[in-house]
Write a structure and sequence with these properties.
single chain; alpha+beta; 4-stranded antiparallel beta sheet; 3-stranded antiparallel beta sheet; 7 strands; 26% helix; 25% strand
């Protein structure tokens, strides 16, 4: 039960704050190439690959020399802004919903004490008062989520 409550609290924090508390690999799919691309997870620690389907519908890798970014690394609360990729030369893509794919890793290496306390407070409240309507009132957990919210797409 406790393990389930911990995972529930961690996932609730990640969802509400739009962050990854542990290292996670994600893929973003775009309908075409764009000059500026905001990635909605935080903090991005690595861009593994940017691929696109060219005019012949052939999957092609975008060279790392063809883009730059403002990777958000550090402990939680350090920089809650989204990572922005800027493409030097936007490639022409085939007309499809997944014309461009970005594979990236997101997650904190260090989690602030307040975040840990907020998660434990939520676990305690759910364990001691399982019928308490959590969504009905602002709590310490909600305040810490708001302080660490990442805004993006």
């Amino acid at each position: 039960l406790i393990e389930d409550l911990i995972w529930d609290a961690v996932r609730a924090f990640e969802k509400k704050a739009n962050v990854c508390l542990s290292s996670q690999t994600w893929k973003a799919f775009l309908d075409k190439g764009y000059e500026h691309i905001e990635l909605w997870k935080s903090p991005i620690t690595e861009i593994s690959a940017i691929q696109y389907y060219d005019g012949d519908n052939t999957l092609t890798n975008l060279s790392t020399d063809d883009y730059f970014s403002n990777l958000n690394t550090g402990s939680i609360g350090w920089n809650p802004r989204p990572t922005v990729l800027t493409l030097e030369d936007v490639p022409s893509t085939y007309d499809r919903d997944d014309a461009m794919m970005i594979t990236f890793t997101a997650g904190y290496t260090t989690i602030d004490y307040d975040v840990k306390r907020a998660i434990l407070a939520r676990v305690y409240r759910m364990y001691e008062h399982p019928d308490d309507p959590v969504t009905e009132r602002l709590s310490f957990f909600d305040n810490v989520v708001a302080d660490n919210r990442s805004y993006g797409l």
